[in-house]
Write a structure and sequence with these properties.
The protein is α/β, with parallel strands linked by helices. The protein has two domains: 12-84 and 256-353, Rossmann fold (3-Layer(aba) Sandwich); 89-253, 3-Layer(aba) Sandwich (Rossmann fold). The protein is 32% helix and 18% strand. The protein is built from twelve helices and 14 strands. The protein is globular.
Length: 361
């Protein structure tokens, strides 16, 4: 029997910005099916925790690299490379503002991941004072937030790094919002994740300061049962914490390597995923203004622009990308985006799949 040669991977960035109400990927891990499909099509997918985190639900795939958002931006810009690892030692950073019972719930989740999944977790550090998270909404309706004591967050992170942690899971106490219209809209599938913007602030700040993979899980009291709950929001209501998916994601998150490296031996590492290897970027058609997308496009990487309605209208046309010579490939769904990735991976011109085909002359 003849064995067909294995196609080389097509390293692809998948970006679904957080806190802007994306129809797919704007809820509790509902971007996971798309990520799994795109990973199968490309053979190598680099994406951020917002896509992969489903609270009590998660999915491990060696073809998917779990990279915090600001690190993803730096990777796309060419200032970081990624080193795949077998495992990370995940330090647990707890906000001093978390009540004792809720704190214990999170510690039990960490113990469960150690006992049932074999993850290496520790040390555990509690901030010296509450982090004082606040939630806000921008004029567009997108969520964002503030941190009253960023200094306490960074000191706790430094303690974890000094204690041997190679990645950091953060749990901050978030303000309760149980009676708000925004939460009701989110649970019904029509709103924006009000927590996402503040979560991004925390993980970006810590990852950039420590140079380690980081991700965040909010500490909140469980919500009352809602019979009309949208399936996309359901993953967040299966348990008492959102921590499990973060610990699993970080357990095999790639190391962040400054690029270009100071040592030649680092550059010679065959496992290193270099920024120049990025061969495609996939993002919602209305949210193309992020740093990772623009950096990749500026470097000549093909952009697959997917129909995925959100609060923004930052389109390829609005940015003038086609006029600037960027290769923009529109896709009506992530299924179509997967087909385009397969075409690129096979060396098939996407234009050859469309009709009519214009004459060369």
């Amino acid at each position: 029997m003849t064995t067909l040669p294995t196609l080389p991977a097509l390293p692809t960035l998948l970006v679904i910005p957080t806190g802007i109400g994306c129809e797919l990927g704007g809820f509790a891990g509902d971007g996971l099916p798309a990520a799994r499909l795109l990973a199968a099509a490309s053979g190598c997918l680099i994406t951020h925790p917002n896509v992969m985190n489903g609270a009590s639900l998660y999915w491990s795939d060696p073809r998917i690299h779990y990279v915090e958002g600001s690190a993803l931006d730096r990777f796309a810009a060419g200032s970081l490379a990624l080193r795949p690892v077998r495992r990370q030692r995940v330090g647990l950073l707890l906000d001093a503002g978390i009540e004792q019972e809720l704190r214990l719930r999170h510690l039990q989740v960490a113990d469960a991941c150690r006992a049932s999944l074999g993850l290496e977790i520790g040390p555990v550090v509690t901030t010296e004072m509450p982090l004082e998270v606040s939630l806000n909404r921008g004029p567009s309706g997108a969520s964002w937030g503030q941190l009253g004591r960023p200094d306490a967050l960074l000191r706790a992170g430094e303690q974890l790094r000094a204690g041997g942690a190679t990645a950091v899971a953060v749990v901050a106490r978030f303000p309760e919002d149980t009676g708000s219209e925004a939460l009701a809209a989110y649970r019904s599938g029509t709103g924006v994740d009000a927590l996402a913007g503040a979560e991004a602030v925390i993980s970006h700040l810590l990852s950039e300061h420590l140079g380690l993979p980081c991700a965040h899980a909010p500490a909140l009291s469980p919500l009352p049962l809602d019979p009309a709950l949208d399936p996309r929001a359901a993953a967040e209501e299966l348990g008492t914490t959102f921590l499990a998916c973060v610990l699993v994601g970080l357990s095999r998150a790639p190391d962040l390597v400054l690029w270009p490296p100071l040592l030649g031996s680092v550059a010679a590492d065959p496992a290193l995923l270099r920024p120049e290897a990025i061969a495609a970027v996939v993002a919602p058609a209305g949210a193309l203004g992020g740093a990772a997308v623009l950096a990749a496009v500026e470097r000549g990487v093909p952009l697959i622009s997917v129909h995925n309605p959100c609060l923004l209208s930052v389109t390829a046309e609005a940015l003038g990308l086609s006029l600037a010579g960027a290769q923009v490939l529109p896709a009506s769904s992530y299924c179509e985006a997967a087909g385009l990735l397969l075409a690129l991976r096979e060396g098939i011109s996407p234009a050859a799949l469309c009709r009519p085909i214009e004459r060369l002359a």
